Structure formats: structure tokens, C-alpha cells
Amino acid sequence: MSATTLPTPKNLTITPRDRRFGRETPVPRLWHGGRFEATAIYNALSTTFPVGEAYFVESVRAFAKGTPPKLAEEIKGFTTQEVIHSREHAAFNRRATESGYDLSKLEQRVEERLAVARARAPVANVAATMALEHFTAILAHQLLADPNHLDGAEPETAELWRWHACEEIEHKGVAYDTWLWATRDWSRWKRWKVKAKVMLYVTRNFLVDRTTGALELMRQDGVTGPRAWRLLLWYLWVRPGMFRKIAGAWLKFFMPGFHPWNEDDRHLLARYDASAKDAPEPKRKVRRAA
Ligand SMILES: [Fe+2]
Ligand SMILES: [Fe+2]
Predict the structure, then answer these.
(1) Distance CA 182, CA 67 (A)
(2) CA atoms within 13 A on the CB side of 149
(3) Cα 27 to ligand 2 centre (Å)
(4) How confident is the model at residue 290 (pLDDT cuts 50, 70, 90)?
(5) CA 133 to ligand 2 centroid distance, Å
(6) Which tens digit of pLDDT belongs to each residue from 4-19?
(7) Quick one: which of 33, 2, 16 has its CA closest to 158?
(8) If DSSP states are collapsed to H, E and C, what string results for the chain?
(9) Is residue 67 pLDDT above 90, yes or no?
(10) Cα 168 to averaged position of ligand 1 atoms, centre (Å)
């Protein structure tokens, strides 16, 4: 695919929404509806974001020089969005720590994974980022498409997750397009082979690490053994079943001609922006600060 025929919509603009969440109102420890497993898996995910998203930015920017102007512009928007996400998730993680969770084991795991990744060539890092950004985008799509996922969550924290999901959808093509640009001299077969291998690898690590991380946080709440496994697996795979529901979108990644924008889900962005316009607290605070 040449850089001029990318399916990323021509009229797509990546607009950072600089919002702040949870700074003024206290957030309960079990912010997700008082549920151990729901709070634990979102907390485990959030633990990865500050350093993980900094890694995404660094991996993409390694190839930014010389990219076509539209992609260069998108990389800037992507970078700003991810930097603000890191800031908000660092604040979220501080609140989790203040409410008594010890995130150090989870953070250490992320650092170990990143150390292994960073020892590889830049193209391997942009490949891992491209795969993880697809993963993030399909989680984000599911989160916005089905309100059950945040059912019962503390409202401002739920808003943080919706805001993040919205921007993940908006910039979902950037790492992919950068990967296409970085590998423009490769054969289709070589590209497919590498991207399939990388996706299987990052998916395995994602599932193992987030499950282990969530179980560790549940242990800190006194929920252990078969009960912890049952609650968590039911939540992730059955109801609301986030992992089960993204399986189809995950598989599409392996199809020939895949591109994140083959599915144009900007209606979810429009819906989010319309609801955020009327959002009571977070956005007003930003306006005051600006
Ligand atoms: Fe992000
Ligand atoms: Fe992202």
C-alpha cells in the first residue's frame, strides 16, 4: 500500500481534548460499582498507561522524520493525546495508591516488558506499538459502544475512561500508518509475517500480565484463590465480557488488506463529543484553567 492510498479518512483530524479528571472529588477505592474484579482490571490497565504510552510515542516518533505531511501532522496529534493520557492515568494511579493499593509489582512487570522491547530494533518497536494500538482501539470501541462496561462506575472516573477511549479511536491509524511507512520497502508477505507474529506475542503478554495484575490487586482486597479467578474470568470473558466481545475485531487484524480505518467508527466519537459538551464537571474545570 502506498502512502497516498491509506484508508485513514482524508478529513480526519486528531484533536487533543485536554481534560482533567478526579482532582477535586474523592474517588472510592472500589470505584467500579464496588466490584473487586471490575476495579482491579481497569486499575491494572491504567498502571500500564503512563510508561506504556510514552513508549508508543517514542516508537512512532523514531520514524516521524520524512513521513508524508498528513501522517506527520497525525503523529503530532497522536503524541499530544498520548502525553495527556499519561498525565491523567498517572493521576488516576496516584488515587489508586492513595486508596491503599500497591501498584509496584504491576509497574515492575511493565518496566521489564519495555526493557525487552527497547533492546530490539526500532522497526520491531513500531510493530509492537502498531499491534498494541489496534488492541487499544478495539477495547476503546467496545467500551464506547456498550455502556454495560462502565455500568455502576463512579461518574467522573467513567468519564476518564470514555475520554481516553474516544481519543484512542481517533488516532487508531497513526501507529499503523507509521508502520506501513517504516516498512514500505518490505514485501507484503514479510509484513504480514512480522505483524502476525508480533500481534500474537503482544496479545499473549497482554492477557497474562493484565490477568496476573488484576489478581494481585484483588489479593490486596482479600479476594484470592478460585473465587478471585471465577469473578475475574466471568467479568472479562462472560459478562460484560470485554475480551470475548473484541475477539472478532482482533481476528480481523490478520486478514489481508487489514487497516484500522477499514471500520469507520467515528459515530462513537461524535456521540462522545456531543455528550462531553454537556458534561458537568471535568470540561468546565479545564475551561477555567485555560
Ligand atoms: Fe492513550
Ligand atoms: Fe493510543
Answers:
(1) 9
(2) 24
(3) 25
(4) very low
(5) 5
(6) 446 899 999 999 999 9
(7) 33
(8) CCCCCCCCCCCCCCCCCCCCCCCCCCCCCCCECCCHHHHHHHHHHHHHHHHHHHHHHHHHHCCCCCCCHHHHHHHHHHHHHHHHHHHHHHHHHHHHHHCCCCCHHHHHHHHHHHHHHHCCCHHHHHHHHHHHHHHHHHHHHHHHHCHHHHCCECHHHHHHHHHHHHHHHHCCCHHHHHHHHHCCCCCHHHHHHHHHHHHHHHHHHHHHHHHHHHHHHHHHCCCCHHHHHHHHHHHHHHCCCHHHHCHHHHHHCCCCCCCHHHCCCHHHHHHHHHHHHCCCHHHHHHHHHC
(9) yes
(10) 6
Angle in degrees, CA 234, 137, 252, rounded to 5: 85
Residue 89 C-alpha to ligand 1 middle, in angstroms? Answer: 9
In this structure, which ligand is nearest to the CA of 165? 1
Weakest mean pLDDT among 6-15, 189-198, 252-261: 6-15
Name the residue with cell 498520548: 82
**What is the Å distance from ligand 2's center to 129 Cα?**
9
Ligand 1 center to residue 101 CA distance, Å? Answer: 23
What whole-number distance in Å separates Cα of residue 283 and Cα of residue 210? 30
Give 287's pLDDT tier (boundaries 50, 70, 90).
very low
Q: Nearest bound ligand to CA 82?
A: 1
Half-sphere exposure of 69 (CA within 13 A, CB side): 1
Q: Which three cell numbers stand for residue 234?
A: 466471568
pTM over 0.90, yes/no: yes
